Amino acid sequence: MKAGISEMKKNGPAKSSRIEIKEASLKKGIHEKVKEYYNLFHAGRDRAFVPGLSRIPYGGRVYDETELVNLVDSALDFWLTSGRYAQEFERRLAAFLGVKYCLLTNSGSSANLLAVSALTSRRLKDRRLLPGDEVITVAAAFPTTVAPLIQNRLVPVFVDVKLPTYNVDCSKLERALSARTKAVMLAHTLGNPFDVRKVRSFCDRHGLWLIEDNCDALGSRYGGRFTGTFGDIATCSFYPPHHITMGEGGALFADKPVLKRVIESFRDWGRDCWCPSGKDGTCKKRFKWQFGDLPYGYDHKYVYSHFGYNLRVTDMQAAVGCAQMDKLPVFISARKRNYKRLYEGLKTLESSFVLPKATRGAEPSWFGFPLTVKENAGFSRDEIVRYLEGRKIQTRMLFAGNIIKHPLFDEIRRSNKGYRVAGDLTCTDRIMTNTFWVGLYPGLNREMIDYIATAITAFVRRK
């Protein structure tokens, strides 16, 4: 028996080493085949741009063989849930932005839901958000910036925005304040930062949480500092049109350990345990806790401190994200370059359009290029949108335009409960009727940007 054990010990490491060498060799061969596949069937899809015939999308995936190799490499692990790639991505994105914590989730919308839900945690004591508390935001927003407030039985208080930045009118913030105001939740519109100095000062002065929706603004800066680093909690999206993609995916950023813990809890079924997937006993006292009316020593992995969700990301998504991180600086530069080129191509049309301008002190990593048709332009938003779409130039509205005019607010509006408007929404309604935007994503080359400018100019001159 002893001899057998000795022989196993003797041969075990050598056998293990041979298996590892074989595995590495097989993986290398698979990776090479994936690269070959990419070059034949993905890179080969690129076609010469033909004005008027080739489609110009508002956004999309920009990738090479690295994303495919990472994706297949993750699939070979067959871990499926969050794992080594998720940990690498969280570490790298946190370091890029300069925040302590980055927490992956399955979408930017889920990130917004988790951000709001986290602030309802009992662990935040007298600063927690309670049903009926008010959160200041804007109605010219994407729905899932506002939806988490309704879903958590909070009251959104809508204030107007300003042109040409398309961001919150900070002069309206004090008027929106009430005894029940607990937080502010705002997005950097189309990558253009809101006036962070004024908003942050307002929040600090009144002891309010700031949730910074950074889903469209990864790589934007305000005062030389990346957006996504100013809020108590910030969110990001990795849906394909965004600055980097995982297909589906999102993240939250925070610096306070208590916020990290409650976000993790809400994301991971509401559990109290903070062990990563596949790990046990991180706290070193797994069976030595006392919680509520549970028996002493009840398994900490099955203790729940919040009514949470399962909003985790897969390692395969994170593997794609890791490859995208290598390209992020190039993507940011391309968006800025495309904005500058399109602006130069359209600046003679200021009598017809409100052209976008960066917020003072900001360096946007633009998500899109918004245009608002002026009242005396001689044509409507719908007319130019139809013209551009007919020439294969994809357009989009500025998200909801005015969120409270949509069917999802019908019941709330009839009851006159559940939200409040501070002042008027004049500019918001103008955006709803007169604004659209076109893409600036890195997949658009100079020829495409020039064609967009030429098409818009030709339409205006014809009118």
Q: What keywords describe this structure?
A:
Aspartate Aminotransferase, domain 2; 3 domains; eight-stranded mixed β-sheet; flat
Task: Report a brief summary of the structure.
The protein has 463 residues and is α/β, with parallel strands linked by helices.
**How large is the count of helical segments?**
13
Low-confidence region ranges? 1-9
Q: Strand content of the residues, in percent?
A: 5-15%
CATH topology group of the largest domain: Aspartate Aminotransferase, domain 2
What is the strand arrangement across the widest sheet? 1-11-10-7-6-2-3-16
CATH class division of the largest domain: Alpha Beta
Q: Got a strand count?
A: 17
CATH architecture of the largest domain, by name, is 3-Layer(aba) Sandwich
What string gives the helices and strands in order?
HHHEHEHEEEHEHEEEEEHHEEEHEHEHEH
Major sheet: 8 strands, mixed
Instruction: Estimate the global geometry from the Cα principal axes.
Output: flat
For the record, what is the CATH homologous superfamily label of the largest domain? Type I PLP-dependent aspartate aminotransferase-like (Major domain)
